[in-house]
Amino acid sequence: MSQVGPIIEVELDRDRYRGQRPPVSVVILTFNEEANIADCIKSCAWCDDIHVLDSGSSDQTVPIALALGATVHTNKFKSFGDQRNWAIDHIPCKHPWHFHLDADERFTPEVVAEMATILGPGGATTPHVCFLSPSKMIFLGRWIKRSAGYPNYQVRLFKFGVCRFMDFGHGQREVPQGSVGTMVEPYRHYGFSKGLADWLYKHNHYSGREAEEGLLIRAEHRMSWGAMLTADATRRRRAAKNFAYFLRFRAVWRFLYNFILRLGFLDGLAGFHYCAMISMYEYWIELKIREAQQRWTAETDALVVRMLSTPEPAVMMPPAQQPTGTAPQEARS
Amino acid sequence: MSVPSTNGQAAPALPAVPSPMELFQRGHGIDVLIPTLNEKLHIEEAVLNARTVGNVFVLDSLSTDGTQEIARKAGAHVVEHKFVDYAKQKNWGLENLPFTGEWVFILDADERFTPGLREELFRVAASGAGHNGYYVNRVVLYMGHAVRHGGLYPSWNLRFFRRGKARYEDRAVHEHMLCEGSADYLKDEMLHIRREPLHEWVRKHVRYADLESTEWLKMRMLGQQGAAPERLFRDVLKYRWYLRREVWPRMPFRPLLRFAYMYAARMGILDGRAGLRLAALNACYEYMIGLMYREKRQRLIESRARGLPSNTP
Fold first, then answer.
1. What pTM was estimated for this model as a whole?
2. Same structural domain for residues A223 and A147?
3. SS3 letters for A51-92?
4. Which end of chain A is more exposed for a tag (fewer CB within 10 A), N or C?
5. Which residues contact A66 (CB under 8 A, 6 or more apart)?
6. Of B121, B148, B48, B33, which is closest to residue A305 (Cα–Cα)?
């Protein structure tokens, strides 16, 4: 299903990029990423300033990163926004531009070449303070072109000192002080590289965070028809996401949207499973929102009381006589 | 119901529904064994409920949420023992706990005795005659509904038996009780309260799906065969087992079929939103198993292609 060690399409080597190396430091956020980190760092071979910001991994992530020449920092994870801001504030990066790559993501030579071109020597060519990067989601060895929402822009490349992040849902959003550019070349995102169980556990947590966000948005009635019709793809996507928090049967709508409207059926069986899994995730979000709003547990408890009640209180056995302060094993005869 | 005395001597007849204390004094007492692991949400209620039936023994698998202390305060005798698997844990408890009654009831922390079941247990225990083991039916309470359809009801388990006359079959999962002599079915039922949030449900079922998909892989890719069908069809239990282990994993559209089976064929629709939710969640579970099976199969194929040993998934 997922690839065990995602294969990088072109092996990168440092020599090839000498002279056109973009003025970019790479920061990789990790937590127990031993399955991914080696390939991830290898795809950064063009860069001479690679930092790994680890939030206390208990596996081989840190030793692997050190062995591959990355500088490792540690900070306790609170949220993605907080962790990225910590990286901006505390990691002494060599270059004026930073790229935040996730451990399950990979650079391609084209992305590197584009960064070199748009930033120019010293990074002074562009008027922008940050760039939206597209990414290709790879699932079952296939690029999920339609239903994964390509280009799915994220701000990953930004200039030091003029862009920060804030938390949103289970992820983060950027807070730029200046204009935002857009890159053309997509990096690769192997969202399933640690196995499905891991993906499901993670999305169990994500759905909880999304549900909290959804409750907040519903409470504030934050919904804008105008933003949904705007030409700005990122604003439109975010407005649509806010709108979705007001819908019932999210899972069904999301499936129809991904599979039919976005032509997900053209991505083959991998595309179908991708749509179905996302829709299951949406179902969990919806259930968690309703769980927080409804009083099902209280209703169950009331039913229990009803079914267990007797006209007179039942006779009870006296409590067990146990010597206190001794180990439980010794307590038994 | 007439109550024969144990020795045929001139003991005064017990009332039709004796109190738990009287039962113990007559030598027909009931000990309730509650195996636990991190059950702080349920344990106090469970112990108080079980103390209306008999002495309560909590066998704890080294909980870290303070279950032991809550249980002790509620009046249970608490013993801790390291968990290996369900069958081994409960068998250890049956052999080593200082029971004093003639009967043992095994109760989970999220289960409760209904008043009707309590009376029935007292009558059976006091009668002294009859069977060595009794199957107990169980109704799930979920989202404010008593779930009586969707294939989840009735649900019979042998939980009530004469001390020393039954033990668990030694297997890691889906353990069953083996009982000496004859067994019967009790008329009244116990409650199974499900108040776990969805988060818990998902966490548990991702783990179950992981285990289940490994079983499928062993069966389909590593050549572990079930028994031949022509012999199996004579035995209903084995026939069902054959369907579940051999036929079901080969069916297409399993999540949809599972939903349709629970919600339509077994009338889960009559349980309202709880029925819908349980059918949908079970379809999710089925889907997770299928996906993980695909993933494991692909890895196995890849590792075989690379010439690596492939006898383990």
1. 0.75
2. no
3. EEEECCCCCCHHHHHHHCCCEEEECCCCCHHHHHHHHHHHCC
4. C
5. A72
6. B48
Contact: B21, A315; criterion CB under 8 Å = yes
Q: Give me the number of domains chain A comprises.
A: 2
Answer yes or no: is A51 within a domain.
yes
Q: What percent of chain B has pLDDT over 70?
A: 86
Note whether A186 and A213 are same-domain residues. no
How far is Cα A26 from Cα A79, in angstroms, rounded to an integer?
Answer: 19
Tell me: pLDDT of A2 over 90.
no
Of A161, A193, A225, the last residue of a domain is A193
Residue B224: which pLDDT band, with cuts at 50, 70 and 90? low
| Order of strands across the sheet that contains A142-143 | A105-106, A187-189, A135-139, A142-143
Cβ–Cβ gap A291/B197 under 8 Å: yes
Closest CA to B192 of B311, B285, B255, B109: B109
At B25-69, the pLDDT tens digits run 888 999 999 999 999 999 999 999 999 999 999 999 999 999 999
Confidence check: pLDDT of A224 > 80: no
Nearest to B292 among A197, A284, A288 (CB): A197
Is residue A263 domain-resident? yes
Query: How many angstroms away from the CA of A281 is the closest CA of chain B?
Result: 10
Mark whether A223 and A123 lie in a shared domain. no
A256 and A278 together in one domain = yes
Q: How far is A42 from chain B (nearest CA, A)?
A: 22
* Chain A residues near residue B206 by CB distance under 8 angstroms: 197, 200-201, 204
A268 and A122 share one domain: no
- A50-54 and A24-30 strand pairing: parallel
* Residue A16 structural domain: 9-193
| Among A156, A177, A193, residue at a domain's last position | A193
Minimum mean pLDDT range among A48-62, A160-174, B135-149: A160-174
- Enumerate the H helices of B97-197 as residue ranges: 115-127
Count the neighbouring beta carbons within 10 Å of the beta carbon of residue B109. 25
Residue A27 structure tokens = 């920061």
Q: Which of B68, B72, B193 sits opposite A300 (nearest CB)?
A: B193
In this structure, what CATH number is given to the domain that contains residue A141? 3.90.550.10
* Same domain membership, residue A221 and residue A184: no
- Eight-class DSSP state of B58: E
For chain A, give the mean pLDDT. 85
Within a domain: residue A2? no
User: Are A62 and A40 members of one domain?
Assistant: yes
Q: Is A317–B291 a contact, with Cβ atoms under 8 angstroms apart?
A: no
Q: Show residues of chain B in contact with A200, CB under 8 Å.
A: 202, 206, 288
Mean pLDDT score of chain B: 86
Q: Are residues A253 and A140 in the same domain?
A: no
Does some domain include residue A306?
no
